[in-house]
Amino acid sequence: MRKILVAGNWKMHGSRAETASLVEGLTAALGDAPVSEVAVCPPFVYLVDAAAALEGSEIRLGAQDLAVEPSGAYTGEIAGTMLRDVGCHFVIVGHSERRSLYGETDGVVAAKYRAAQRDGLVPILCVGETLEEREREVTEAVIERQLRAVLDSAAIASFERAVVAYEPVWAIGTGRTASPEQAQEVHGFIRGILAADDDTIADSVRILYGGSVKPSNAGDLFSMPDVDGGLVGGASLDAGGFAEICRAGG
Ligand code: PGA
Questions:
Q1: Which of 57, 97, 171, 178 is deepest in the core (most CB within 10 A)?
Q2: What is the pLDDT of residues 96-123, one digit of tens each?
Q3: In the chain, where are the structural domains located?
């Protein structure tokens, strides 16, 4: 049985004070026994603070991006080894905002996925179609292309140490959530692609849904057979609401 994973993507929000109160609020709201596996992904500069505040808690730490290179003259970049060093377990790779705003191609995303694993992190690999692509009915082709780029560059065995997140771009930050059935359809498709390479790995890999997840829709989404949790943006910035989403996976 796959354990539900709920990860909070804080994006470029917050301050030191807000990070502290968010982590404190979340640990208090979840209590000693979080029912789901939970992770928070603050901006780079707040990771150290968040790691200290999370000490002794079951909540894991993640970053939102990493460099392809392990170290060197790459001004402004952050290496996976550094993220490990400050206590990260996860790193988000290929978020649609990185793809669309910062020009990350499928090839770059695949290289970051491999770099994450090389550096001892578990990548949360994001895939998803735009509204225009959904309307053109090429959703499956887009998802397959994004996934295939990673499968071709890192073998199926790598998915034993990875998480996939399906994030339809039209649902991110828009308040417009995919219906549980729409999410299930794509999640099943993703699992099917992985299963063509290895049934057992496909069955165990967690596929999260992301895009306007909130307390009111999390339960219905997480109850779908191939939806194994959520990657939560806006709603993860409210400790009480985020804890409610985490409990929806219990
Ligand atoms: P959202 O963002 O929950 O605010 O839609 C999700 C994400 O971008 O990971």
A1: 178
A2: 999 999 999 999 999 999 999 999 999 9
A3: 6-237
Nearest to 7 by CA among 180, 142, 123: 123
Atom of ligand 1 at shortest distance to CA of 234?
Answer: 4
Cβ contact 243:202 at 8 Å: no
Place of tokens 């049934």: 199
Q: Is 213 in the pocket of ligand 1 (CB under 6 A)?
A: yes
Minimum-distance ligand 1 atom for the alpha carbon of 210: 6
CA of 221 to the centre of ligand 1 (A): 14
162/178 Cα distance (integer angstroms): 23
* Residue 245 contacts residue 218 (beta carbons within 8 Å): yes
Query: Which CATH code of 3.30.460.80, 3.40.1050.10, 3.20.20.70, 3.40.50.720 fits the domain covering 6-237?
Result: 3.20.20.70
pLDDT digits (tens, 9 = 90+) for 19-46: 999 999 999 999 866 678 999 999 999 9
pLDDT band at 166 (very low <50, low <70, confident <90, very high): very high
Q: Which residues are catalytic?
A: 95, 167
